[in-house]
Every structure is written in C-alpha cells, then in structure tokens.
Design brief:
Blueprint lengths: L1 H27 L5 H19 L9 H28 L2 H8 L2 H12 L7 H19 L9 H24 L5 H22 L16
Length: 215
C-alpha cells in the first residue's frame, strides 16, 4: 500500500511539473525558436542526468540500441518539435487539452505493438471521464471554440509521438537504473536533433540565454 501511495505521489509531482512546461514554452517562444527550446532543454537535462548518474553500462545489443534510439526520436525529437510548434501556432489550452488524448493513443498503440495490454470498454470509459475532467479544468466554464488547424494537428501528432515513446520504454524494461535509461534516451534525442537544427530555425547565439526576457 505504501509503495502504491509513493507511486501516486511521484505521478502527481510529474504531472504538476509537466503542466508548467506548456506555459513556460509559450513564453520562451517570444525569444527562442521551437528548435532552440528543444535543443537547450535536452542538453541541460542530459548534463544534470549525467551528474546524477555518471555510470555506464555495457550495451544489450543492436535491438536494444534501436529501442533507445526510437524512444529518443519519438519521445524527444518528434514530440518536443511538434509540441513546441503547436504552442507557436495554437493556444496553450488547446495544446494541453489535445495532449490529454495521449493515454488513449498510448493504449491503442500498445494494443498492437505489445502483449498483455488489452483495450476494453472500461479503459475507453475511464479515458472519456478523465478527458472530460481535463476539459472542465482547462476551460473552467469559459469555453470559447478557437480552432488553430496547424497547431492543433501538431498537438495531436505530439500526443501520438508520446504514445510510441511510452510503448518503446515499456519494451526497454527496468534492466538499468531509471536515470541511466532517461540519460541514454536523451543522448539519442540530441543526436537525432542535429539534422533538425541544421535545416531549422536555430541560431548559435548563446548570449540570448542570459537575457532577462528569456526567463
């Protein structure tokens, strides 16, 4: 029971921190491009994770490396690129609501790519109730329909990317330390971001990071 309570507390903490990223990214978009936000965020996180767990482990083989690379692409490069651009073209409330579809999309993806992940009526009903709750919290009785096709589509793409990421992480399992797994995924994410930076809106002007308007 204590173990379950601890897991719920961690989950709530993660959700709380994660929810702030929609607003903070929206603010950062005034000073930085989506590619810059994505890259700086991952480099900073990788350095923190490396300091927290500097150990290395021998590779589990080519298939395992593909899982890590896939998790890096879907969970970081594609996810944050689509989310950041979604926030650029759409409202933070729209993006937050559409990303709430992630659990349902994850269940659908897991149903076809893994075993032991059934998709049933109870799951669908639970998702609908949870999604309605998210809707009520975000709009708080002041719902005004403002569609932003490009941004809203990118938000759905971000949710789908995270669904694939969650499934791949499930396949990686718990063979390694959790920090090491996250660090290795971030490493592949940074590597796969480099082509995006080469052709995207990325300026090598690090002085902007110290400007008050960037915070």
């Amino acid at each position: 029971m204590q173990s379950k309570i601890g897991c719920y507390i961690i989950a709530v903490a993660v959700i709380t921190v994660w929810s702030t990223t929609f607003v903070s990214t929206k603010i950062l978009l005034h000073s930085l491009s989506p590619e810059e936000i994505m890259f700086y965020r991952h480099v900073l996180a990788y350095l923190v994770l490396l300091a927290a767990y500097p150990h290395r482990h021998p590779s589990g083989g080519f298939r395992e490396e593909l899982l890590f690379a896939g998790a890096g692409i879907f969970g970081s490069t594609l996810y944050f690129l689509t989310e950041n651009y979604a926030l650029k073209y759409s409202m933070a409330s729209n993006v937050g609501l559409l990303l709430a579809t992630t659990p349902m999309l994850t269940a659908i993806v897991a149903r076809f790519l893994t075993t032991g992940e059934p998709f049933n009526r109870q799951l669908a009903a639970g998702f609908c109730i949870a999604f309605l709750g998210v809707f009520l919290v975000i709009f708080n009785g002041h719902f005004i329909l403002k569609l932003h096709p490009i941004g809203d589509f990118l938000a759905i793409a971000a949710a789908l990317s995270w669904a694939f990421y969650s499934t791949l992480v499930k396949k990686i399992g718990n063979r390694y330390n959790g920090i090491y797994i996250t660090r290795k995924i971030f490493f592949y994410a940074i590597v796969t971001m480099l082509p995006v930076l080469a052709f995207g809106d990325f300026r090598y002007d690090f002085s902007r990071l110290w400007q008050p308007t960037t915070y």
